[in-house]
Amino acid sequence: MYTDPISDYLTRIRNAQKAKKKTVEIPASKMKLRITEILNKNGFIGDFNVTETKNKQGSIVIKLKYNNNTDGVILGLERVSRPGIRKYVESNSIPRVLNGLGINIISTSKGLMTDKEARKHGVGGEVVCSIW
Question: Model confidence over 77-110: pLDDT tens digits?
Fold first, then answer.
């Protein structure tokens, strides 16, 4: 059992991409599914689907994207807010990732969203992770 499922999620994607895998399978949860939807919408990963498993949890199968079949589209994944050290930001102080080339995923009162969406809606929250 692991204590930080989001860090595990990010590490599985990072390791699968370094190993040049076509897909990666991750145990499902609502938060992981929403992060996967955001990554897909912003072009960091390909298609994904949720499959049933013997237990009720299920799993998310993610198809990874590569540039010219050599380098992964995702250059970096970083967990910002950890279980021991939470990082909260206000709407006017949301950090940018590489001057807007990457995204922050923020957990707000209106659900998980990217930093650009949070600025547009004028809400702050917990910075979950950064992807570039």
Answer: 999 999 999 999 999 999 999 998 999 999 999 9
pTM: predicted TM-score of the whole model, two decimal places: 0.91
From the list 126, 83, 86, 123, the residue with the least C-alpha distance to 105 is: 126
Q: How many CB atoms lie within 10 A of CB 39?
A: 23
What is the model's pLDDT at position 55? Answer: 84
How far is residue 88's CA from residue 91's CA, in Å, rounded to a whole number?
A: 10
CA distance 18 to 85: 28
pLDDT the model gives residue 111: 95
| DSSP run (H or E) holding 72 | strand 71-72
pLDDT attached to residue 53: 83
> Token pair for residue 102?
């990457």
Three-class SS of 10-59:
HHHHHHHHHCCCCEEEEECCHHHHHHHHHHHHCCCEEEEEEECCCCCCCE
Q: Is 90 exposed, middle or buried (0-12, 13-18, 19+ CB in 10 A)?
A: exposed
